[in-house]
Fold:
Amino acid sequence: GKVLVTGANGYVAVWVVKFYLERGFSVRGTVRSESKAKYLRQLFQSYGDKFEIVIVNDITKEGAFDGAVKGVDVIAHTASPFHDRADDPNEIIVPAVQGTLSVLNSALKHGGQSVKRVVITASCASIFEFGTTPRVFSEKDWNERAIREVSEKGKAAVNGDKYCASKTLAERAAWDFWKMHKSEVAWDVAVMNPPYVYGPVLHEVDKPENLNESLTLWWNAVVAGKLSNEELVTFGFGWVDVRDLATAHVLATTTPEAGGERVIISAGTYKFQDFVNVAHRLYPKLPSGNTSYDPVKAVHLISFDASKEHKLFGIKYHTMEEMTKDTLEDFIKRGWIS
Ligand code: NDP
Structure:
């Protein structure tokens, strides 16, 4: 089979491409410009014509993916802005929502009988809501709060809420589109909802300052020692290794029952000090952080129920130790830690 992977140069996407290729799929990746294609062509050179790139310079334009979807069996839509630099929330909401709709529209009009499944890289951002007592969230939950915050406050909303609103609105748009058109198409939709994604880098990054959003947080906490002792033991969320999320995309493609499901892909909860503890044990010159931390006493207000994933896919998640070790080895290999 052949998979179209949108935003193929991203942190998550390059692992997704790699795992599809390793499992025998052909991959057509989209990137925004030729300059972003070169590195990928080189990285996946050994796959010959099983890997190709097409340029889609504006994913929000209607018909943007008309050419790209032709002849593919599966679409994995990962392209979506993830950063906290947006002033106007529409800077990230428009590409998230319109990008998703333009992929689905092209699949509707030009996917013919070939497209069987659309896998969407969504997020736990569209599931959880902030609260004051510990709560376990499942696929039944939707982040209505972020949408409300952004519609009430606009530019003044906190940046995290702008991103959460973009992912919630994009995922909702995908389900609404599919409900509206499912009788006309040969495909269904499977949505992957990961919390923070960490783990080694495979995409093109020249220096740590240019890491993607999630790894920047991890780098700042674990390597650069930029969090205060208080922040190290209170800042946290759910997490998953990028390689397990990539595996989930492949399993979402090959598991018929994943159709029509949103699926939380989460290894568990963390406080940044958990990663710092592992890192400092492996490399004593890295910061020790807050040495009074007791993980047993840590309060996780937000956690995610991954039981649907266990039933559907049964992923064996990388542990904190494995992820931290592999990530640090990668950073060392790049000369970022000496
Ligand atoms: P990256 O920033 O590494 O990759 C984002 C990808 O989306 C890039 O290919 C980027 O292209 C593309 N993109 C961003 N904005 C636009 C836009 N306006 N128009 C077209 N393309 C755009 O992020 P990740 O790999 O971390 O994220 C990938 C997906 O995973 C996203 O959907 C994100 O929401 C989701 N996710 C990520 C999590 C994480 O912790 N990393 C957690 C949960 C979900 P370009 O390089 O040209 O900008």
In short: Residues 7, 9-13, 32, 36, 59, 78-82, 95, 121, 123, 167, 194, 196-197, 212, 214 surround NDP (CB under 6 Å). The longest strand covers residues 26-31. Residues 159-181 form the longest helix (23 residues). The chain has a mean pLDDT of 97.
